[in-house]
Amino acid sequence: MTAATGGRRSDRTRAAILTAARERFAADGYEKATIRAIAADAGIDPAMVMRYYGNKEGLFAVAAQLDLRLPDLAALDRAAIGDTLAGHLFDRWEDDDALVAMLRAGVSNADVLDRLREIFARQVGSAVAAVCPDDPATRAGLVATQALGLALCRYVLRLPPVVGFTREQVVAWLGPTFQRYIVGN
Q1: Which of 11, 21, 139, 174 is the most exposed place for a label (fewest CB within 10 A)?
Q2: Are 72 and 30 spatial neighbours (Cβ–Cβ below 8 Å)?
Q3: What CATH class is the domain 3-63?
Q4: Domain with CATH 1.10.357 in the chain
Q5: 71-81 tens-digit pLDDT
Q6: What pLDDT was estimated at residue 7?
Q7: Number of other CB atoms surrounding residue 82 within 10 Å
Q8: Angle of the 167-183 helix axis to the 81-95 helix axis, nearest 10
């Protein structure tokens, strides 16, 4: 085996662990997810998880690194900011188990909750400040109340009818609220 082959295998193993961890944290939450279950999902020995990530906290820290990949709100037509942001956040929640895992874990774990707060404050705050420098922290906080509230009801509490909303329904409900919070109209 060459170093390149070993490196590729190592990368594949790390990727398999992260995929399994994100899915397991999303399904079970941080407290109930175990290294053994994650290793079984990845098809590896639990010692490999420990080798690469040290412990569950270390694994979660890597699995929960999130970039919301927010659109450049300043580049948008001002009248479309709320709808665009609502659609984007809906797509991110639907496509990224790490976001759901953080939300589930944040309900019961103070460290995860702090990380989730920091992600939304920094990333949403920066995006909002680019459009409306007048009190961006408050505006971003209000956007987070709606985005995280919808996500909690949809993915954790699974409340009807929220769990059944289509993307278009989420945009129709949240878009105008985001618009008001960010630009005031």
Answers
A1: 11
A2: no
A3: mainly alpha
A4: 73-183
A5: 999 999 999 99
A6: 67
A7: 24
A8: 130
CATH (residue range 73-183): 1.10.357
What's residue 75's pLDDT?
97
Residue corresponding to tokens 């290294």: 35
Alpha-carbon gap, residue 103 to 55, rounded angstroms: 20
* Contacts of 155-164 spanning 24+ positions with Cβ under 8 A: 155/93, 155/100, 155/103, 155/104, 156/100, 156/103, 156/104, 156/107
Lowest mean pLDDT among 27-31, 69-73, 153-157, 178-182: 27-31
Domain with CATH 1.10.10.60 in the chain: 3-63
